[in-house]
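Data availability (excerpt). The following record was deposited with the supplementary files.
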Amino acid sequence: MLNSLSDSHVLLGEYDAALGALSRAEAILRSLPPPDAADITEIRMLPGQTYHRMARVHALLAKQRTSPPQVRSSHARQAREWSHRASAVLEPLKEDVLIGAQARRLLEELREIGAEA
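Predicted structure:
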């Protein structure tokens, strides 16, 4: 739910609100045990999807020319950090029969984010 809410905020250009929703989602994820292979696909993908969205929003903020250079640099660094976290979650899932294609798509998007950040 919070991931979808963040998507809506991004579409409206409300990046700070998107980060707020994603921060709440990430806090919930931290409070849960890590997913394992026996969990349903949505549960196994959720951390990677959340971290992917965090990377994407920070990358968008890094491109904001109205922000001071040090703020843009901080967002670029955070985009790279979230991208690494997302990749660590998604990489083992890329060969999964059910969610492999989605994991590979998100990993490709993360490579593009990393190249831009």
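Summary of structural features: The helical segments are 2-11, 15-31, 41-62, 69-90, 100-116.
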